[in-house]
Amino acid sequence: MPTACTDGWEGCITTPPPMVAYDHDYGTPSGQCKETASGSGVFTRSWTKAEVRVDCNSFVANITLADGRQLLSTPQQQ
What we know:
mainly beta, five-stranded antiparallel β-sheet
């Protein structure tokens, strides 16, 4: 059983958040997560069936599936 929110959503809420992103198969990681430029706060990771880009400055993620479809997140309210 998770002990804190850092262990995942299970420690914070009782049901998983409804996310369309959970409905897709991204395959397996093709490598490590990489920062696009030193200090940029923007990270990418390749998967066998998708490319993932996360901007930690704006809290926006972009997932491009192998078939070209894109899943975009919206900035979180602070």
